[in-house]
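cache lookup: miss for this entity combination. No prior model stored, computing from scratch. Input as submitted by user K.M.:
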Amino acid sequence: MVELSVVRLEYSNVTMRFAQSGRGTLTAVRDVSFAVHDGEVVSLIGPSGCGKSTLLNIGSGLTAPSAGIALVDGERVEGANAHVAFMLQKDLLLPWRTVAENVMLGVEIQRLPLAERKKRAEKLLASFNLAEFSAHYPHQLSGGMRQRIALARTLAVDPHVLLLDEPFSAVDAQTRMVLQRDLAQTLSKARKTALLITHDLLEAVTLSDRVLVMSARPGTIIDEIAIDLPHRDDPFARRHDPKVNDYAARLMDRLEISRVAIESQAAEGAA
Ligand SMILES: Nc1ncnc2c1ncn2[C@@H]1O[C@H](COP(=O)(O)OP(=O)(O)O)[C@@H](O)[C@H]1O
Ligand SMILES: [Mg+2]
């Protein structure tokens, strides 16, 4: 458990409506309020289309909310924020840049001196076991390796807050576990604050201090479950803890996954 202190990221009564061409508006999220404290890892789960990505976009400044505000370090988010880093399911690496050049992309924008940049790149690449690939190009590497590079790039800017939108959902199960461990270790060591979207309940339980559950659209927070387990820096250790399955089962109940599955089977049967 992380000792709660400073609020790093906050959503206050955030509502998001999208204009639908000729069909009025769609309320994607409604009246969402929560806070993520310094060093805390919070996962956000909820049915597809309930507005999880929309919330992350709002936190990153990519999208302005229709009502309410998002705050980072107590300041209203308006446009891109140097203290927030974003990572998506797609790695979005630049194919014409080497691994090292990709990792340092965000840092270039920060205008650090070249020597400082190189030093930081080397350190990061080493800590992610990427040193020997630094001169490779993305197409020479596996999907898992590319996501690892994307993670290193996200951390290279030394952000206060990481926003992670299903970062590992496109990689195979074994690679995913290794990436989860890398993320967990890095977040703990650097005491970073993170908001993680995932549809993998075990991922949510093994990586987080707290899990927020959203309803179907218009998405709103319907529950919050504190994960009171040791080893937040070691998802492999957590996976061996039988309590992990109890937490995952509780989340499944809150999401009403079994009911939804039965209903969709019934609908298929009727069709
Ligand atoms: N830019 C947009 N314009 C119109 N509708 C959008 C836009 N972005 C998202 N939506 C809609 O808002 C809802 C929530 O989307 P999203 O945040 O991507 O959900 P999730 O990430 O939980 O699957 C969906 O119905 C989606 O179609
Ligand atoms: Mg999404």
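stored under new cache key. The radius of gyration is 19 Å.
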